[in-house]
Every structure is written in C-alpha cells, then in structure tokens.
Amino acid sequence: MSGFIMLKHIKHLNLQYFIKNLPQLSHIMFMEPSYSLQIYHKYSYEYKNGNSNCDDRTHKNLQNYKFKCNSNQKNKEEFNYPSISEETLLALAEYFESFEEHCDSNYDVTYSDGVLTINLPQKQGIYVINKQAPNRQIWLSSPISGPKRYDLVNGIKWVYASDGVSMHELLNKEIPTFISSKKKDIDFTILPFGGKS
After folding, report:
1. 3-class SS string, the chain
2. Segment 90-146, tens digit of pLDDT
C-alpha cells in the first residue's frame, strides 16, 4: 500500500507500518482528525502495554502525530464554513454560466439555497454540488464518477478523502468532455478555494 492511504485501511495496520507511513497519513489528518486521534490512541495503548517492539523514538513520533491531529481538529472546527462554502459555490455557478455560449439550449445552471445544479448540453446528465453544513463539507454528484464528499484542506481547496483529488481538479477532468471544443481554457482551480488561490 503506497501513496494516499485510506482511513478504512489504517486500523488494520501494525504499529511499525503505521509509524513508517506517518508522512502519508498526514494527508488524511485534516479531513478526519477525530478518527485519526482514535488511531493514535490505539497504537499508543499498544506501546504503553508492551504489545509492540517500538522504541522511544517511535513513541515520540506518535506524540507528534497526536499533536498534528489535535491541531487539525481545531482548524476544522474554526474555519468559517458558511462564508467559504458560499464563496466556493457562487464562484462555481458563475464559471459554469460562462460556458452557456458554447452549449446548446439544454444547458442550464441554477444556484439556490446552497444547491448548485448543472444540466449538461444535449441532456448528457446533471451535476449537483451542494453544501453539507452538519459535516462542514461540500458534496458533489457527477454523471461520470458518482457521489463524492469534499473537505476543506489547509484553507485552500476541497479534497475527497478517499482519493486525495480536489473537487476543482475533478471538474477540470470531467467538464471538458461536455463543453464545445471552442472553450479550451477551462480551469476550475483558479477559482476561490480551487487550490491556486
């Protein structure tokens, strides 16, 4: 297992593997800090009870991991979700509207009450992007890749925890499939919280 490690796999890893891959695990700590802390406590308990062969240096790394988890939990709780999610969706709505001249009459963009709906040209499907306030996330439903849930990472972009790909990167990949070849300069990542701002 390498690259982006999904949370559902981590709880099955032994302590040595867990410590070795801490740099990779840091990618998911912001998105699921409370669960990350549960993982820390599991392995810290094994260390304290002599159920592993890790040394003091390894235990120190565990302590650093806990600090990062606590810090990321605080950051996730403190960022201004209502303002940032609204700015994100409004910018997306305006950008999608700019494609109208390159599409047929079936293309339609609406944004209301935190829900952005994009009816694609030639009735090729519908994208729905909406706020999910209880989880402080943005959810997206794609006719190509299906449903995804995005968390704000480092205050700059919305990322899907399962693959590490941002929402705007996904749109960069999928939307040109539906838009006329006349519109060649599509780049969602330049928008607010798209990763480049």
Report:
1. CCCCCCHHHHCCCCHHHHHHCHHHHHHHHCCCHHHHHHHHHHHHHHHHCCCCCCCHHHHHHHHHHHHHHHHHHHHHHHCCHHHHHHHHHHHHHHHHHCCHHHCCCCCEEEEECCEEEEECHHHCCEEEEEEEHHHCEEEEEECCCEEEEEEEECCCEEEECCCCCEHHHHHHHHHHHCCCCCCCCCCHHHCCCECCC
2. 999 999 999 988 888 889 999 999 999 999 988 889 999 999 999 999 999 999 999
**Quick one: 118 and 38 in the same domain?**
no
Q: What is the tally of structural domains in the chain?
A: 2
Model-level pTM greater than 0.85? Answer: no
pLDDT tens track for 155-177:
899 999 889 999 999 999 999 98
Asked whether the beta carbons of 91 and 191 are under 8 A apart, the reply is: yes
Q: What is the Cα–Cα distance from 41 to 107, expressed in whole angstroms? A: 51
- Whether the pLDDT of residue 35 is over 70: the answer is no
* Co-location of 44 and 101 in the same domain: no
Structural domain for 99, as ranges: 81-190
Give yes or no: residues 52 and 73 share one domain: yes
Evaluate whether 10 touches 39 at the Cβ level (below 8 Å).
Answer: yes
Co-location of 62 and 99 in the same domain: no
Neighbouring CB atoms inside 10 A of 136's CB total 16
23 shares its domain with 73: yes
